[in-house]
Automatic annotation (TrEMBL):
It holds the Pfam family PDZ_2. Residues 409-494 form the PDZ domain. SMART domains: PDZ. GO terms for biological process: proteolysis. Belongs to the peptidase S1C family. Residues 113-124 have a biased composition (Low complexity). Keywords: Hydrolase, Membrane, Protease, Transmembrane, Transmembrane helix. Residues 1-139 are annotated as: Disordered. SUPFAM superfamilies: PDZ domain-like, Trypsin-like serine proteases. PANTHER family: PEPTIDASE S12 (PTHR43343), PROTEASE DO-LIKE 8, CHLOROPLASTIC (PTHR43343:SF3). The keyword Protease applies. This is PDZ domain-containing protein. GO terms for molecular function: serine-type endopeptidase activity.
Length: 506
């Protein structure tokens, strides 16, 4: 059985003394900084009270702001009013009945923090509760300007505002009456909604090209008595120079009494006169009496390839401002047609196109997909042998712009033009030995005679151009300049030969 613990004084054993404390000396500097002030022994100084220099007591906290004091402070005359505590059923002390709405099991809800919250009566005197509501002072009622505008408004301004509102209402009523009375005349009797859709004409489209090219293409009318002709032309110079076909204005050159008129796309009519003609290539230049005409853009026919898109603009069958579209069917197509009024046959290196070309298109523009001039429409070919136009085969021919502009510049400066000539008459031939132009006769002392070409020789090549028929010989020679030395390849008795020919002038 264990023994109970007994104190040491009861057991007779000597009591141990406490261990001495090791207290190092206090640093005087730290004691002056962290020590108690003089005369203060405890933790708090209850004797010293801070005062200002004039002896007034210093208040450690600032006074409450005036706005907070007015909002949460006691009202005037209520300094002695005490807060009420919930009382019993008679209004005295703690309620004693459990049925009372103020009953609480705690001894004092004001002192017990765990007590339930209880709503008491308002902190007002009994006499204030018994006052009649009619005796209480009432605030002034807000006026209409204060309700509408939040401030006082002069009656004059309020009246002026009312007048303005009446005027606005009257004007609105008049406008509504006018719209209602004239609605039928503005919209019509139909009830179908109509909307105009904007047609898109992208740059480079046929419509866009036609709009740009048509002002530079003219219709040419030549009249002399009861006879006349109609064709087309293209303005190529700001001074009014226009290029066309020789057969379009041949009546004006042969009949001094003939009158020539140029008609523009906007209907403007003006006189025109002949500047120069070249019957051998069916080209002519006229001048129109108009200031600042629209000039067509000049392209390069040498850049064309078969299949390129082209547009023909002119006055076929007298129908002005007609636009047709097609492609380049072929290039370097030698074409020979009879001359007009006794003129020599026309031969040129044509652009073949399937764009619809008819009588009246002659002299008009053939443009590429950029709207640049690449040819002058000149002739057509049908399968019936007449001049019915594209109703037949639909094949048209145009003079390349490179050749046409070269001749037009010479006609403007000189009025006439000279072409290179080899000095032979030739016929087309196609045999087992050769295909080309066979020499029928040679001009005495001409370029071919001086070069040693004889009758019966077959010319197959002039320079770099192959010759497969007589018209191609003509265009191959005219592609060079007068006086130029050109190698000519011939076949004589089945043997190929090359001779140098110095070209002459026609």
């Amino acid at each position: 059985m264990s023994q109970p613990n007994t104190p040491a004084e009861n057991s007779g054993e000597p009591r141990l003394a406490p261990k001495p404390l090791d207290r190092p000396p206090v640093d005087p500097a730290q004691a002056a900084t962290f020590g108690r002030p003089r005369g203060v022994e405890g933790a708090f100084d209850k004797v010293y009270t801070p005062t200002s220099r004039n002896g007034d007591k210093i208040i450690s906290r600032p006074p409450a702001p005036e706005s907070l004091a007015e909002a949460f402070g006691r009202p005037a005359g209520a300094e002695d009013v005490q807060l009420q505590r919930p009382g019993d059923d008679n209004g005295n002390g703690r309620p004693t009945s459990p049925e009372s709405p103020l009953w609480s099991k705690t001894a004092d809800p004001w002192r017990d923090p765990g007590a339930a919250a209880v709503l008491g009566g308002p902190a007002l005197d009994t006499e204030d509760d018994e006052k009649d509501d009619d005796e209480r002072p009432r605030g002034a009622m807000l006026s209409l300007p204060e309700v509408l505008f939040g401030r006082r408004v002069k009656p004059t301004a309020l009246g002026l505002l009312g007048v303005v509102c009446l005027l606005i209402g009257a004007v609105g009523g008049l406008v509504g009456w006018w719209v209602a009375s004239t609605g039928d005349s503005l919209t019509g009797s139909a009830t179908i909604a109509e909307a105009e859709a904007g047609k898109e004409r992208a740059p480079g489209s046929i419509a866009n090209i036609a709009q740009r090219v048509s002002p530079a293409v003219i219709s040419i009318e030549v009249k002399s008595g009861d006879s006349g002709s109609v064709g087309s032309g293209v303005v190529i110079d700001p001074n009014g120079y226009a290029i066309t076909n020789n057969h379009v204005i041949s009546l004006a050159t042969s009949d001094p009494q003939a009158k020539m008129t140029a008609v523009f796309s906007d209907g403007t009519r003006t006189d025109a006169k002949v500047v120069g003609t070249d019957p051998k290539t069916d080209l002519a230049v006229i001048k129109v009496a108009v200031a600042n005409p629209v000039v067509i853009q000049i392209g390069k026919s040498a850049d064309l390839e078969p299949g390129d898109s082209v547009i023909a603009v002119g006055s076929p069958l007298g129908l002005q401002n007609t636009v047709t579209a097609g492609i380049v069917s072929a290039l370097h197509r030698p074409v020979t047609v009879p001359g007009e009024n006794g003129d020599p046959p026309v031969t040129y290196d044509a652009i073949q196109t399937d764009a619809s070309i008819n009588r009246g298109n002659s002299g008009g523009a053939l443009v590429d997909s950029t709207g640049a001039l690449i040819g002058i429409n000149s002739s057509i070919r049908t399968d019936t042998g007449d001049t019915g136009g594209s109703i037949g085969t639909g094949i048209g021919f145009a003079i390349p712009a490179d050749e046409a502009m070269k001749i037009a510049k010479v006609l403007i400066s000189n009025g006439t033009v000279k072409h290179a000539d080899i000095g032979v008459n030739a016929n087309s031939v196609s045999a087992d030995t050769a295909e080309g132009a066979v020499v029928a006769n040679i001009a005495d002392g001409g370029p071919a005679a001086r070069a040693g070409i004889a009758e019966g020789d077959v010319i197959t090549k002039v320079g770099d151009r192959l010759v497969r028929n007589a018209p191609e010989l003509t265009v191959a020679v005219r592609a060079h300049n007068v006086g130029e030395v050109v190698p000519v390849q011939i076949v004589r008795q089945g043997r190929p030969l090359v001779v140098d020919v110095t070209l002459g002038s026609d």
